[in-house]
Amino acid sequence: MKQWIAFWSILAKDMRFYYLKPPNISWGLVFPLAWTAMFFIKSGEGLESIRALLPGVVALSVLFGTTSMLAVTVTFEKKGRSFERLLLAPIPLEVLVLAKTSGALLFGIANGFVPVLMAAFLTDLAGIHWPTVVVAIVLIAAGSTFLGLFIAVSVSEVFEAQTFSNFFRFPMVFLCGLFFPVEDLPVWLQPLSYALPLTYGADVLHAGFQQQGRMPLGLDFLMLGLFCLGLFLLSQRNIRKKWTV
Amino acid sequence: MIDDMRPVIEARGLVKHFGTVTAVAGIDFDVCRGELFGFLGPNGAGKTTTINLLIGLARPDRGSIHVAGIDCTGRLKAAQHLMGVVPDESNLYPELTGLENLCFCAALYGMPKPDREARARELLERFGLAEAAGRKFAGYSKGMKRKLTIAAGIIHRPAILFLDEPTTGIDVASARQIRQLIADLNRAGTTIFLTTHYIEEAERLCERIAFIVGGRIVRTDTVERLMEPVQERQVVEFALDGQVASVEPALRESFPELNLQVASGCLLRVISDRPVRIGPLVRFFEERGLEVGEVRKVRPTLEEVFVEITGIEAADVSCEKEKAGGVS
């Protein structure tokens, strides 16, 4: 019960003071809108093409929203030493990590549905396999959140968090098969693509929105789950190593 | 529950290195239940590192820490229930109000909502911050920030409070208020581990003091026992209207039995184990054209003991005090 009180308080504080601030809400709206408009204009096709753009735009919205926010907020608290308050509290590190990541996770999930909501006003979304889409968004958000945590643990300045995030994000965007199939990549780059969590997330989104997944869904979910668990454990190990020196 | 028979804090053979720098070089000490224990040393002596080792923000390379009988290297989270921590810099959330900060800190210790709000309001009242309860922490003055940070440290009624340099860099009135609060907390039964480089503060507040220099404890004792060697010492200060240096050789020649210290250009300190006869000294100065503006007897202080034991010059300690804002 006591741990639940601490967990909920950390989550509520982060939601109120970081994620639900007007600039972040506008980021969650403007970013997907800009990406959708960009790809829509580039495609030169009608409104029916928007549905084909959804896997890419949803994945990018989730990826950029979660990794940026968590890495920046945690680094900000570390810099101001308020994070020490959390480390000194009698709550297990696992609970603390989950509380800090839950805000980013929810923010990422909400970001992921913004383009879907926008698309609902512009085109017909019939035939979409919603359970698959929802699970995909949650798993991509979880993976991206833990990636953000890994970044937050690795850096000490807020600007480093942004730079280091891009080091992971941009290669992932181009190699994950969102905008062109992995099979079209040079053979030597393909193994790298399969080592990225977003490759599996993108595949599930393609399957959910367009029924065009290239790998079995079970494999995608398994790989996403393993990436989430791996990043979570790696981040915890690094927190123990770096934040209690 | 804390076992009355055992020390509340037991540190044995603590060693901590940061790269090639040895911050703490094998220290041992005990803190008894209800005690106000001072950890005194210059900047960089290892005070903050020691406190970080005790509270779990740093891991010792060697040695053991037991808090209320709990092995902190293995069951830190169990011990953290008993600890309140006030770090050397206020580390509350700038975007939260005073009340929200305290309620949040209480929630981290699992206090239910009605309890934490009542406790937060009680502490805001006690620390004279009730009127600022709804203001953001970022807008507080340094003294107010310090007080709220102490309030946050005791929000869950800890048995042991760790205070790291609690009065550094704040105004005289706030520092005095904070020292009073610390004394009140200790009287109410809270064990307090206080680090400071203000010697007068340690002397005024603490029952026992450990002197730490270069990561090593050079002496631990009660204030009374530390003061014993200087209690009988007579110290008289002469404030002159000119430089003491101009007459210093002649002065030492005329009064070989006295220990003379030039505290500053115009200030001479005379130390003796017997009563100091002021008349001959005043005449000596006047014959050499120096007017004595003021003569005062100085009570022996812990500073002298500190200087004798650690070998750190009083001037260096004063210099640190000035940098940090001084003690009133």
Mean pLDDT of chain A: 85
CATH superfamily (homologous) name of the largest domain in chain B: P-loop containing nucleotide triphosphate hydrolases
In total, how many domains does the architecture of chain B comprise?
2
CATH top level class name of the largest domain in chain B: Alpha Beta
Output the structural class of chain A.
Answer: mainly alpha
β-sheet strand percentage of chain B = 25-35%
H-E order of chain B:
EEEHEEHEHHHEHEHEEHEHEEHEHH
Largest interface: A-B, 24 and 29 residues
How many helices of chain A?
10
Strand runs of chain A, count: 0
How many individual domains of chain A?
A: 1
Mean of the pLDDT scores of chain B?
A: 87
- Assembly state (oligomeric): heterodimer
Principal-axis shape of chain B equals elongated
Write down the CATH topology of the largest domain in chain B: Rossmann fold
What is the overall number of helices of chain B?
Answer: 12
Termini Cα gap of chain B: 38 Å
Structure overview:
The complex is a heterodimer of chains A (245) and B (328). Chain A is an all-alpha fold and 245 residues long. Chain A has one domain (2-243). Chain A has ten helices and no strands. In chain A, helix 1 (2-19) packs across helix 5. The two termini of chain A are 30 Å apart. The relative contact order of chain B is 0.13. Chain B has helices spanning 47-55, 76-80, 98-108, 113-126, 142-153, 172-187, 199-205, 223-231, 248-254, 278-287, 302-310, 314-324, and strands at 9-18, 21-31, 36-40, 62-67, 70-71, 83-86, 160-164, 191-196, 208-213, 216-222, 234-240, 259-264, 267-272, 292-298. Chain B has a six-stranded mixed β-sheet, sandwiched between helices. A four-stranded antiparallel β-sheet of chain B has the order 2-1-4-5. Chain B has a four-stranded antiparallel β-sheet with strand order 12-13-11-14, with helices on one face. The two termini of chain B are 38 Å apart. Classes of the chains: A mainly alpha (245), B alpha/beta (328). The A-B interface holds A 1-3, 5-6, 8-10, 13, 17, 80-82, 84-92, 244-245 and B 18, 55-59, 77-78, 80-81, 83, 85, 87, 89, 91-96, 104-105, 107-112, 152.
